[in-house]
Amino acid sequence: MPYETLILEREEGFAVVTLNRPPANAISEGLMRELDAVLSEVEPDAAVRALVVTGAGDRIFCAGADLGSAFSGGNVTDFIRFGNGVLRRIERFPKPVVAAINGHALGGGTEIAMACHIRILKETARMGQTESSLGIIPGYGGTQRLPRLIGRGLALEHLLLGTQIPAAECHRIGLVNRLAKEGATLDDAKALARELATRAPIATRLIIEAVDDGIQAPIDQALEIETRAFQQVIRTEDAAEGIEAFFQKRPAGFTGR
Q1: Active-site residue 29, yes or no?
Q2: Would the pLDDT of 52 be above 70?
Q3: Cα(239)–Cα(117) distance, rounded to whole angstroms?
Q4: Does the active-site annotation cover 209?
Q5: 3-class SS at 173?
């Protein structure tokens, strides 16, 4: 289907969704609804085994909410809750989602990136939950995901000060997985998505589920979550193929069955 605020492109094994609201790729209700629609379109497509999220242009990944429209008219609470649902859907998406952060990611832009499974950041870009500088707080999970990624104390410092964190520091504290050279962010993300697309789809989905379900659970409960996931995956054709390929010293051909 055609999109007004996003661009969806398919490549072999993965898809790329580009936030396309120049100049800042700011978040609007329309963008969030289209992002939700993209997830619905891509999820059942067996040919798409990974997803890359990036921003149009090379300066700003996403500068956060469109302050001229996001909080005016309509129900702000509904806007926040719906957007949170979309980001939670990304976080739980059964296929790996890679954020190609090809420019500054501020406010809601950082929140979109944090919901993705893996983050690659341009080495000259900055990230940050800058909402406190406007006298407000994050609304798309920033107060919850940032402490989970970098720790409570450091997260509180950046949240309270509204810090724009340089790329090198983002990498050092674990906010992003990798840094990319200027002009290489999307290519690096595509290379990673291409590699992820070769992995066993059922195992991939169950890893994502087990990590998400278990990360805040007591260790005994978390281990039971993993055991149940293992019981599911060990019976699959992909598991048999992976083990057979190991003994035959050849690449495995996973089919998602």
Answers
A1: no
A2: yes
A3: 23
A4: no
A5: coil
